[in-house]
Design brief:
single chain, two-stranded antiparallel sheet
Length: 177
Amino acid sequence: MASVGQELLDVPLPDMVAKLAMGIANAQAALDSNSVSTAQMLADTEIPVVLAVTQTIASDGTVSYSQAPPIEVSLLQIGLLPTFYQFSEATIEVTMDIKTTSSSETNVKVTAEAKAGFSMWSASVKAEVSHNRKFGKEVKGTSRLYTKLVPVPPPARIEPRLIVVDNRPQAEGGAGG
């Protein structure tokens, strides 16, 4: 099994950047698709709207109201617009801490013993060697991906333009006649 540090080192920076860019591109496409679906839903949903209310004040001071008949307009036509987003920043941050410890210990113990007797003597040497070696390795790795998403205005052509065509006959002689 590869260590955390080795796994981080095995991913080349260009690959990280490419994967980040492709991830953002795919996410952006999904966001755009969602905004287009919302725009379609707003265009398809119609509600009745009264475009004009007339207030009439009679000579005796009474007030009356009349309204134009309601017309069906889409939510897009009355000004509800989908929200569009775009990624404005993306950051990859990789940090790695490696701590290695090593210690070595060697012990040598020598004992000598000599015996002498009539026409014979003997000697023995006893040596004990112990060796102790310790290794410690601690690897910590973290990575962080940061992206910033901001709303942007909808495309200018998505907003419907209001054109008023008034075919009522115009009074001759001007106003106040």
